[in-house]
C-alpha cells in the first residue's frame, strides 16, 4: 500500500472548494448532511469581497448543520459547516485550528482553494477528504494534488454537467481525482466515508 | 493523522525559525505556522533552495540575506481604505473625540508599504485634524518601510482605491492628494509631513510613546494567542486613558487577556476604547 492509497480508514474532515456556480452545487450537498455529522466541513468559495455573509446566510436556511464563518484560532469542530471569510486566505493549523492570512492573492483568488487544501492536507493527512466542485479557473487543482500526496481522498464533481467545468477538469488533468461524481451523489459519499473507506467506491 | 512529509516540513520550519531567532534576533516562533510555512517555502524557491532546510546554512553564514528573508516572511500586502466602513466609523465616531485634544498621537503598527497610514492621514486632513497630529507608522520590514516613506504608487491603483475612499466618506477626489507623472502617483508632502516611519518589532520591542489611537490591522492574524496577548498588552500600555484601538475586521479581542481593559465602540468593526477607570480584575 502506498501513502496515496485512499482505500483505508475513516475520514475525519472534509474540505470543499468551488467557484462559479458553486452555490447551487453546495445546495445539492450540504442540506443532505444529517445533524451530528461526525466531521467538520470547510467550504472555500470564490466570492466578491462583500457577499460572503450572504452565502453563509443562504446555506444556513437550508442546512441541518450549523453554518458559520471560520474564525482565526478557533478549532474546526465536527458537525459544523465553516465558510472561509471573503478577502482572506483560510488555512488549517496542525492542531486543527483555523488561521487567516491577508497575503497576496494566489491564482487571482483570496480565499484560495489551493492555500486551504495544501494546509489541510498537512494538518489532516489521510483523514481528509477534499471535494472540488464547479468553477471557471484552475484554483484547487494543486490543492487536490497535495491532499492526494498526503494520503487524503479526492472527489471531483463530474465536469459533465458542472456550471463551469474548468476547475474539475484541471484537477482531473493533474491526476488528482480518486472519484468523479455528480453533486447529488456527494453527500451520500461523505456520509459513508465517515464510517470508513475500506469498501472502495460505495455503490 | 498527518503524513510523514508534513512532519518533515514542520521540523524544517522549526529549525529554520530557531536559526533566525538565535542568529539574527528575529523571533517568528510565535507566528501561526500554516501561512508562515507557505512563505518560507516561497522564500526557499526564490533563493534557489530546494527545501526550507537548505535555507538554514545560508541564513547562518550570509548576513546580507537577512533583509530578503524578513521581507519574504512578512509579505506586506495592503490597500488604501480597505474596509471603508472602518474608516467611516473612525471619521464619525472617533474624530469628534480626538478633535477635543490639543495634540493627537497615533501609532499605526504593521504599516507595510504605507497605503493604510496615508488613508488615515488623508481622513484626518479632511476633518481638519492633521495639523495637530503626529502619526508613528511602524513595521518590521525595512524594504516595505522604505517604500512607504517614498509614498509613490502606481496611478492605476489610486483609481482603484477611489471607490473605497468615497465609501469611507471621503469628500474630495483621492487623486487630489497625489502628484501624477509617468503612470505614478506621489503622495503630497503636506500629508506625509505628519507621519514618522520607523522599524519596530511587535515581538520584541517595547512601547515608545503614549498615544490616543492605535491602528493595527491584519497583523495579529499572523500571531498565535500568546503573541497576540503580548502585543495587545503593548497597545494597552501605550494608549492613554480613553484611547482608541482599531484592529482588523477578522481579529478578535474577546479571547485576549487585555479584553477587560477595553470596551467596544463598534464590536463588528473591531473598534475599541480603553476604559477610563481601573479595569475590573
Ligand atoms: C498584511 S500586512 C497589513 C498591512 C496593513 N495594516 C493593512 O491592513 O492593510 C501585515 C504587516 O505586518 C508586518 N509585521 C509582521 N510581523 C511584524 C512584527 N513582528 N512587528 C511589526 N510588524 C510586523 C508585516 O511586515 C506586514 O507589513
UniProtKB/TrEMBL annotation, chain A:
<keyword id="KW-0963">Cytoplasm</keyword>
<feature type="active site">
    <location>
        <position position="139"/>
    </location>
</feature>
<dbReference type="Pfam" id="PF01339">
    <property type="entry name" value="CheB_methylest"/>
</dbReference>
<keyword id="KW-0378">Hydrolase</keyword>
<feature type="active site">
    <location>
        <position position="19"/>
    </location>
</feature>
<dbReference type="GO" id="GO:0000156">
    <property type="term" value="F:phosphorelay response regulator activity"/>
</dbReference>
<feature type="active site">
    <location>
        <position position="46"/>
    </location>
</feature>
<feature type="domain" description="CheB-type methylesterase">
    <location>
        <begin position="6"/>
        <end position="192"/>
    </location>
</feature>
<protein>
    <recommendedName>
        <fullName>protein-glutamate methylesterase</fullName>
        <ecNumber>3.1.1.61</ecNumber>
    </recommendedName>
</protein>
<dbReference type="GO" id="GO:0005737">
    <property type="term" value="C:cytoplasm"/>
</dbReference>
<dbReference type="InterPro" id="IPR000673">
    <property type="entry name" value="Sig_transdc_resp-reg_Me-estase"/>
</dbReference>
<keyword id="KW-0145">Chemotaxis</keyword>
<dbReference type="GO" id="GO:0006935">
    <property type="term" value="P:chemotaxis"/>
</dbReference>
<dbReference type="InterPro" id="IPR035909">
    <property type="entry name" value="CheB_C"/>
</dbReference>
<dbReference type="GO" id="GO:0008984">
    <property type="term" value="F:protein-glutamate methylesterase activity"/>
</dbReference>
From TrEMBL, chain B:
<dbReference type="Pfam" id="PF01739">
    <property type="entry name" value="CheR"/>
</dbReference>
<dbReference type="InterPro" id="IPR022641">
    <property type="entry name" value="CheR_N"/>
</dbReference>
<dbReference type="InterPro" id="IPR000780">
    <property type="entry name" value="CheR_MeTrfase"/>
</dbReference>
<dbReference type="InterPro" id="IPR022642">
    <property type="entry name" value="CheR_C"/>
</dbReference>
<protein>
    <submittedName>
        <fullName>Chemotaxis protein CheR</fullName>
    </submittedName>
</protein>
<dbReference type="InterPro" id="IPR050903">
    <property type="entry name" value="Bact_Chemotaxis_MeTrfase"/>
</dbReference>
<feature type="domain" description="CheR-type methyltransferase">
    <location>
        <begin position="12"/>
        <end position="275"/>
    </location>
</feature>
<dbReference type="Pfam" id="PF03705">
    <property type="entry name" value="CheR_N"/>
</dbReference>
<dbReference type="InterPro" id="IPR029063">
    <property type="entry name" value="SAM-dependent_MTases_sf"/>
</dbReference>
<dbReference type="GO" id="GO:0008757">
    <property type="term" value="F:S-adenosylmethionine-dependent methyltransferase activity"/>
</dbReference>
Amino acid at each position: 500500500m502506498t501513502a496515496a492509497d485512499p482505500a483505508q480508514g475513516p475520514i475525519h474532515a472534509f474540505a470543499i472548494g468551488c467557484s462559479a456556480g458553486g452555490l447551487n452545487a453546495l445546495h445539492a450537498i450540504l442540506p443532505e448532511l444529517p445533524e451530528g455529522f461526525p466531521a467538520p466541513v470547510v467550504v472555500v468559495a470564490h466570492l466578491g469581497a462583500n457577499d460572503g455573509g450572504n452565502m453563509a446566510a443562504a446555506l444556513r436556511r437550508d442546512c441541518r448543520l450549523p453554518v458559520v464563518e471560520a474564525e482565526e484560532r478557533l478549532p474546526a469542530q465536527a458537525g459544523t459547516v465553516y465558510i472561509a471569510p471573503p478577502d482572506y486566505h483560510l488555512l488549517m493549523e496542525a492542531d486543527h485550528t483555523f488561521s487567516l492570512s491577508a497575503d497576496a492573492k494566489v491564482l487571482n483568488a483570496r480565499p484560495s482553494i489551493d492555500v486551504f487544501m495544501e494546509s489541510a492536507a498537512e494538518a489532516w493527512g489521510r483523514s481528509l477528504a477534499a471535494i472540488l466542485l464547479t468553477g471557471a479557473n484552475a484554483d484547487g487543482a494543486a490543492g487536490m494534488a497535495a491532499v492526494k500526496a498526503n494520503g487524503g481522498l479526492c472527489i471531483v464533481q463530474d465536469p459533465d454537467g458542472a456550471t463551469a467545468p474548468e476547475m474539475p477538469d484541471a484537477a482531473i488533468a493533474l491526476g488528482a481525482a480518486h472519484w468523479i461524481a455528480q453533486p447529488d451523489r456527494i453527500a451520500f459519499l461523505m456520509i459513508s466515508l465517515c464510517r470508513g473507506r475500506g469498501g472502495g467506491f460505495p455503490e | 493523522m498527518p503524513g510523514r512529509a508534513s512532519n518533515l516540513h514542520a521540523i524544517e520550519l522549526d529549525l529554520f525559525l530557531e536559526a533566525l531567532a538565535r542568529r539574527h534576533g528575529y523571533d517568528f516562533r510565535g507566528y501561526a505556522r500554516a501561512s508562515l510555512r507557505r512563505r518560507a517555502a516561497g522564500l526557499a524557491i526564490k533563493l534557489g533552495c530546494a527545501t526550507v532546510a537548505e535555507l538554514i546554512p545560508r541564513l547562518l553564514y550570509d548576513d546580507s540575506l537577512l533583509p530578503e528573508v524578513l521581507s519574504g516572511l512578512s509579505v506586506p500586502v495592503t490597500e488604501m481604505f480597505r474596509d471603508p466602513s472602518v474608516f467611516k466609523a473612525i471619521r464619525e465616531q472617533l474624530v469628534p473625540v480626538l478633535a477635543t485634544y490639543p495634540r493627537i498621537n497615533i501609532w499605526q503598527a504593521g504599516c507595510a508599504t504605507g497605503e493604510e497610514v496615508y488613508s488615515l492621514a488623508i481622513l484626518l486632513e479632511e476633518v481638519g485634524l492633521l495639523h495637530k497630529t503626529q502619526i508613528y507608522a511602524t513595521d518590521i520590514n525595512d524594504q516595505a518601510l522604505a517604500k512607504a516613506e517614498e509614498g509613490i504608487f502606481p496611478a492605476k491603483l489610486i483609481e482603484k482605491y477611489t471607490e473605497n475612499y468615497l465609501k469611507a466618506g471621503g469628500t474630495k477626489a483621492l487623486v487630489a492628494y497625489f502628484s501624477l507623472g509617468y503612470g505614478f502617483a506621489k503622495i503630497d508632502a503636506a500629508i506625509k509631513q505628519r507621519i514618522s516611519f520607523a522599524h519596530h518589532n511587535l515581538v520584541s520591542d517595547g512601547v515608545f510613546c503614549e498615544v490616543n489611537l492605535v491602528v493595527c490591522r491584519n497583523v495579529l492574524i499572523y500571531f498565535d494567542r500568546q503573541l497576540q496577548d503580548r502585543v495587545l498588552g503593548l497597545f494597552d500600555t501605550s494608549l492613554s486613558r480613553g484611547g482608541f484601538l482599531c484592529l482588523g475586521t477578522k481579529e478578535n479581542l474577546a479571547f485576549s487577556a487585555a479584553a477587560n481593559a477595553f470596551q467596544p465602540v463598534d464590536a463588528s468593526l473591531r473598534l475599541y476604547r480603553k476604559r477610563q477607570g481601573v479595569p475590573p480584575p
